[in-house]
Specification:
With 302 residues, the chain is mostly helical. The chain has helices at residues 2-30, 32-49, 59-86, 93-143, 148-196, 203-246, 260-286.
Length: 302
């Protein structure tokens, strides 16, 4: 039972790696023109951002990403080498070959995830000058009146942010299938590892199974963190734009803007209160009438 289950899990794992690796290569070849267009648009965005004062190159962040994925690949390779060395007498030649092929394929998927993380980090860094410019414009508007210079800066920020949003959509369209394959690969491999750990009676085999799952989990967490950081940075810009939009109205002592939205809110509050009162009135009308009874005094007389 143990041997058959272990063989089936290994076959599923090898088949999953081969299918996802092949699908990733095919998707990359089919979208190579869109990929080139995306990189050209990114270069154009860099030329536009040269006008912003805080445009710096994110070398430190990219270097950190580089080291993280080197750790993932080296850890995976070390685990494969140890597995082959320890089980050198138990594994056939074709099993050693499959082991090396799996390392090459998983390393390619890790490099694919690393590349997507780099692009997301670059886009995230390109959002920082836009947010800082909007923040500076908002501070200037609080201190002084609006001017043509502020208007031109706002238009430039909006156009640049629109270009960033377009690049983010291109990133989703180009690498959406690859992200689906990478996350599905990590999920399937983790599921197989957790399920297979229940059948590994050998502690050494259990160790290799857990050690093989660690780099896949780290890669998935790092990829999700980078893409989440990009989304949060864009949310900050949206909130800043929304706040600047609301500041154009005349406020009632900074409590709320006096505009048509205020009228809609007042009408909604009145209707809500009327419904509550109407419900109480219906409840009172539905209660049975209680007739007053004669009250007897202490001396027995009404």
């Amino acid at each position: 039972m143990f041997q058959s289950t272990f063989t089936v899990l290994s076959l599923i794992q090898q088949t999953t790696i081969m299918i996802i690796f092949g699908a990733t290569i095919v998707d990359t070849m089919l979208k190579r023109k869109k990929h080139a267009n995306f990189l050209n648009n990114l270069v154009e965005l860099d030329s536009i951002l040269a006008e912003f004062p805080s445009n710096e190159i994110c070398k430190d962040e990219l270097t950190s990403l580089h080291r993280q994925h080197i750790f993932v690949i080296c850890f995976n390779g070390l685990n494969r080498i140890c597995d082959s060395v320890v089980n050198v007498n138990l594994m056939d030649e074709h099993e050693h070959f499959y082991n090396a092929m799996q390392f090459f394929q998983t390393a390619s998927l890790s490099l694919d995830a690393y590349y997507i993380r780099c692009l997301a980090t670059i886009l995230n860094h390109r959002c920082l000058p836009i947010f800082e410019s909007l923040n500076a414009i908002g501070d200037d508007l609080k201190m002084s009146n609006s001017s043509r210079e502020h208007t031109s800066k706002l238009i430039s920020c909006f156009k640049t942010f629109d270009n960033v949003m377009h690049l983010k959509k291109q990133l989703s369209n180009i690498f959406g299938v690859q992200l689906l394959l990478i996350t599905a690969f990590d999920f399937i491999i983790s599921t197989i590892s957790v399920y297979g750990s229940m059948y590994y009676h050998n502690l050494l085999t259990l160790y290799f199974n857990i050690a093989y799952n660690i780099p896949q989990t780290v890669k998935c967490v790092l990829l999700a963190t980078s893409l989440d950081t990009l989304g949060n940075q864009m949310d900050l810009i949206f909130l800043k734009i929304n706040h600047m939009e609301k500041s154009k109205y005349v406020t009632a002592s900074n409590f709320y803007p006096v505009n048509r939205a205020m009228l809609y809110g007042m009408a909604a509050a009145i209707v809500t209160h009327m419904l509550i009162i109407f419900q109480f009135q219906m409840w009172e009308d539905s209660q049975p009438n209680i007739k007053p009874q004669n009250v007897t005094s202490i001396h027995g007389q009404p």
